[in-house]
Amino acid sequence: MPPKPVSVFVTRKLPEPVEARMKELFDVTLNPSDRVLSRDEIAQAMAGSDVLVPTITDRIDAGLLGQAGPQMKLVANFGAGFDHIDVASALQRNIIVSNTPGVLAEDTADMAMALILSVPRRLPEGEKLLQSNNWTGWSPTALMGHRIAGKRLGILGLGRIGRAIARRAKAFGLDLHYHNRRRLHPDTEAELGVRYWESLDQMLARIDILSINVPHTPSTFHLMNARRLKLMKPSAYVVNTARGEVIDENALTRMLRAGELAGAGLDVFEHGHNVNPDLIALPNVMLLPHMGSATREGRLEMGEKVIINIKTFADGHRPPDQVLPSML
Ligand code: 8YV
Fold first, then answer.
1. Cα separation of 207 and 25, whole Å?
2. What is the Å distance from ligand 1's center to 244 Cα?
3. How far apart are CA 47 and CA 95, in angstroms?
4. Are residues 81 and 120 in the same domain?
5. Nearest C-alpha to atom 10 of ligand 1 is from which residue?
6. Please, is 43 exposed, middle or buried when counting C-beta atoms within 10 Å of its C-beta (0-12, 13-18, 19+)?
7. Looking at residue 58, what DSSP letter applies?
8. What is the pLDDT of residues 152-165, one digit of tens each?
9. What's the confidence (pLDDT) of residue 327?
10. CATH code, domain carrying 34
C-alpha cells in the first residue's frame, strides 16, 4: 500500500497553480472563499492535520499551538515574516516552523523605492487633484516637492530587502546610511556604498528619508517611538514596508499632522487593516494596503517554497526554510 499522503490545511486562497500542485502532492484542504478563518476553525484544523499553512492574517499563538494534535508537525508559513507565529512555543511542542525568505526581497524593495520617490515628490496629492477634477492647469509653483538625488536615505535593517533598496537608491543618487544589529563586512558596505551608524539615534538626526526594513520582534516593537521620531528633521520622510508595529503609529500621525515630519509612505500598519483614520486623512502620506510583495511572480515563488518545505519535511528531512531559534 502506498504511504498515506501528508495532510495539509491552507488557511487562505493561494494562486491557482500553487493550489493545483498542492492537490497533486498532498491531501490538502483549501479555502476557496479566502475568508479569514476564526480561531476555532484554525484550532480544529490543527487538531486534525499534519501541516498548517497560515499567512500573516492568522495569529498562531501558544494557546492555538496547545490545541494541535500530536500529528501536527509543521507550520509552513506562506510569507517571510513570522511575527504572527509563536515560534518558541511551537519548538517546545516539537512543531517545526518554516517561512518563505528571499523570494519577496526584490518586489518589496521596488515598493519601498516607489514610496521613497512618491511621497517627497507629492504623487498622491497630484493624483487626487486630477481625480477631483480640480486641476486648472500647470503652474510654476504648484505641487513643488523635494529632489531625491543627493538626499540622505537611512535604511533601518540592512538584510535582504534593505540591500535591494540600497542598490536601487544608489542609482537614484541617494546618499546611503544604515543601522543594523550587526555591522556588515566592509567589502559589502563598499559594494553597496553604505555608511554604518552604530547609533540609530545619531543616524535618525541626520537623514532625510528613513526606510524601515527590520522584522517585528520584541526588540523592534515601537523602535521608532515618539522620542526617536522627534530626533528626525521636520523635513524628513518615513517609509515603512516592513511591519507597522515597528513605528508608534499614533505618535507618527500626531507629528505628521503637526508638521514635525514632512510625510510618510506606509505599506504596513500597527493594527493590520484597522488604519488610524487620522492618518488616512492626512495629505502628506501615501498609504498602501500591504501590497509590497504582491506580484504574481512573487506569490508563485512563495507557494513553491511552501511546497518544497512541506515535501522535504514529508520525505523525512528538515525543511530548507526552517525558522531556527537563533532567528528569533
Ligand atoms: C506577505 C509579508 O505578503 O512575507 C511577509 O512577511 O509581509 C508580506 O509581504 C505576507 O506576509 C503573506 O503572508
1. 50
2. 12
3. 13
4. no
5. 79
6. middle
7. S
8. 999 999 999 999 99
9. 84
10. 3.40.50.720
Confidence of residue 2 (pLDDT cuts 50, 70, 90): low
CB 75 within 8 A of CB 99: no
Number of domains within the chain: 2
Q: Which atom of ligand 1 is nearest to the CA of 299?
A: 3
What's the confidence (pLDDT) of residue 222? 98
Q: Is the CB of 269 under 6 A from ligand 1?
A: no
Per-residue cell: 235:
523635513
Residue nearest to atom 12 of ligand 1 (CA): 79
Same structural domain for residues 44 and 171?
no
11 touches ligand 1 (CB under 6 Å): no
Contact (CB, 8 A) for 85 and 91: no
Does the beta carbon of 101 sit less than 6 angstroms from any atom of ligand 1?
A: no
Same domain, 220 and 312: no
**56 in contact with ligand 1, CB cutoff 6 A:** yes
DSSP 3-state of 194:
strand
Distance 230 CA to ligand 1 centre (A): 29
Q: Taking a C-beta distance cutoff of 8 angstroms, is the pair 247, 222 a contact?
A: yes
| pLDDT above 90 (res 169) | yes
76, three cell numbers: 509552513
pLDDT surpassing 70 at residue 1: no
Q: 263 with 180, same domain?
A: yes
- What residue numbers bound the domain in which 56 lies? 7-103+295-327
Convert the pLDDT of each residue in 94-107 to its tens digit. 999 999 999 999 99
Centre of ligand 1 from the C-alpha of residue 135, in Å: 37
Task: Determine the distance separating the centroid of ligand 1 and the alpha carbon of 289, expressed in angstroms.
Answer: 12
Could you tell me if the CB of 293 is within 6 A of ligand 1? yes
Shared-domain flag, residues 122 and 172: yes
